[in-house]
Request: fold
Amino acid sequence: MSEPASISTGIAARYATAVYELAKDGKAIKSLEGDIETLSAAMADSADFNALINSPVYSRDEQGAAITAIAKKAGLSTLMTNTLALMADKRRLFVVPHMVQALRDIIAEDKGEVTADVTSAKALTKTQSDKLAKTLKARMGKDVTINASVDESLIGGLIVKVGSKMIDTSIRSKLASLQNAMKEVG
Reply:
């Protein structure tokens, strides 16, 4: 892991742990989950929001005022609004994406859930997704949340990543394996 990414992840983990503990003490985990979804949507949909949290051009005061206004407009909880304001004051808004992911991981672990990243050639139907989640639950012993994505270059099959484990049943990987075997023979 590169050092800057490691530093960002470490900073984000400390903020995420503190926010989670405060939310847990205040019995506000549901509110925190809503805040996480709101922040994720803002990061995915708004280039201006991403520029605000990542750009060193904005001063502390500008970042603080902007992030507080955005948090209030988005309906974020007081805990998250105050956390973002503190992060702006400390010039740490650049770790918000890492903090959101760390919060997701902490909440999932507390609930006894695990997230599976599933890549398929075509979008999974609800039935397929439910069946896969049931199979993974039986295998992992925990509830599984599926984070699905589509990659048409797989041709068919799935790539499933759960934690450090990966199962690749895609046609693309089987063809690559066959191609390597043919090279070794010739």
Notes: The first helix runs from residue 3 to 25.
